[in-house]
Design brief:
By secondary structure, the chain is mainly alpha-helical. Helix content is about 60%, strand content about 0%. It has one domain (about 20-100).
């Protein structure tokens, strides 16, 4: 019996008007991860800041920052494809196989 894996598919665009390098994009990913961590710190009350936001507002901020991380990461995928010839689709397949091999997900064929 074939098992269907559950996927969350988010399609994000290639950004126009930018000429990102591998290095600048990596730095931007780190910056966005920091902003995500800051938002989570607010949610958990460990940021040291007085939080005057509702839980819903903080969760909305976390979602926005997470999508900023995803967008920047996708931008880095475009750089790898266009500047270095990396086949990202193949890398995604290899990544899924790695998850199967580590037992994080069941094989697609079960």
């Amino acid at each position: 019996m074939k098992r269907h894996l559950k996927f969350k598919t988010i399609s994000l665009p290639k950004l126009d008007g930018l000429s990102p390098s591998l290095e600048s994009t990596a730095l931007k990913v780190a910056e966005e991860q920091g902003e995500l961590a800051r938002a989570i710190g607010k949610f958990r009350g460990i940021s040291g800041e007085k939080v005057s936001m509702t839980q819903k507002e903080v969760l909305d901020e976390i979602a926005k920052e997470l999508l900023d991380v995803a967008q920047t990461t996708i931008s880095m995928c475009f750089v790898l494809e266009e500047e270095y010839g990396v086949d990202i689709d193949q890398k995604v397949e290899e990544h899924i196989q790695k998850l199967i091999d580590k037992g994080y997900i069941k094989s697609r064929d079960k």
